[in-house]
């Protein structure tokens, strides 16, 4: 497939996803501007990410640090005038914190005090080394299924973790992220998440982001207050290229 054909393919997919988001917002009685679209580019090449920036997509998401760091650097080379905002949405090991703060504008998968501490330390070191400036936005990943293999902070512990993050220099608590449980009704799961988000905002009024909904369930997520949907398959296809 030529670059122009791939651009046309992605453009059509982006238009279709935008229409779904707009329709879901209208059905929920919400302005379209309340919901951001994150294009999940994991396993797809930097050329696809660059094409997305050409089409006006400003938020890109990855779930593996090893792939993401190199891809973000390549996109900077391919599109030096583009300024995409990069989001880490996958499970993150503490030993990857130093690398992640070099490329990520936001980490959506903070699920423990130890990981938050590691990110804060890595951010301080990055500032001192001149590798980046400014704060790191973070979202707490909430567990909706209590499955430790999928990551996430149990709902009863969200307040404690939020308080800890709020006390760390350099980290800016922005809200919650979650993935609907496998095989469960996503609407019920997102209703629980919305209630947890409302509780969190009572103590942390700036934590207004609610990242929920993917290619298969963005509509019920938006119906329950999602401000950020993470879409990969519906934009770029079911399978990406193997990462180096």
Automatic annotation (TrEMBL):
Keywords: Pyridoxal phosphate. Transmembrane segments: none annotated. The modification N6-(pyridoxal phosphate)lysine is found at residue 42. CDD domains: PLPDE_III_YBL036c_like. PROSITE patterns: UPF0001 (PS01211). Residues 14-239 form the Alanine racemase N-terminal domain. InterPro entries: Ala_racemase_N, PLP-binding_barrel, PyrdxlP_homeostasis. It comes from the Bacteria. HAMAP family: PLP_homeostasis. Belongs to the pyridoxal phosphate-binding protein YggS/PROSC family. Pyridoxal 5'-phosphate (PLP)-binding protein, which is involved in PLP homeostasis. This is Pyridoxal phosphate homeostasis protein. It comes from Amycolatopsis tucumanensis. The lineage of its organism: Bacteria, Bacillati, Actinomycetota, Actinomycetes, Pseudonocardiales.
């Amino acid at each position: 497939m030529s670059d122009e054909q791939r651009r046309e393919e992605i453009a059509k997919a982006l238009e279709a996803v935008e229409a779904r988001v707009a329709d879901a917002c209208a059905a929920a009685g919400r302005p379209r501007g309340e919901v951001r679209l994150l294009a999940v580019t994991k396993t797809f090449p930097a050329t696809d990410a660059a094409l997305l920036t050409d089409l006006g997509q400003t938020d890109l998401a990855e779930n593996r640090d090893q792939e993401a760091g190199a891809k973000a650097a390549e996109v900077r080379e391919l599109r030096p005038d583009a300024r995409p905002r990069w989001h880490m949405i996958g499970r993150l090991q503490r030993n990857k914190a130093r690398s992640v703060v070099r490329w990520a504008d936001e980490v959506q998968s903070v699920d423990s005090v130890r990981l938050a501490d590691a990110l804060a330390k890595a951010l301080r070191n990055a500032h001192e080394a001149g590798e980046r400036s400014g704060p790191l936005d973070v979202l707490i990943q909430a567990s909706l299924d209590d499955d430790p293999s999928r990551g996430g902070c149990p709902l009863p512990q969200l307040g404690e973790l939020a308080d800890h993050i709020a006390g760390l220099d350099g980290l800016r608590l922005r809200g919650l992220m979650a993935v609907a449980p496998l095989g469960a009704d996503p609407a019920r799961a997102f209703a629980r998440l919305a209630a947890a988000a409302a509780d969190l905002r009572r103590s942390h009024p700036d934590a207004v982001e609610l990242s929920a909904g993917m290619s298969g369930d963005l509509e019920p997520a938006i119906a329950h207050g999602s401000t950020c949907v993470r879409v990969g398959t519906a934009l770029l296809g079911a399978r990406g290229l193997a990462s180096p």
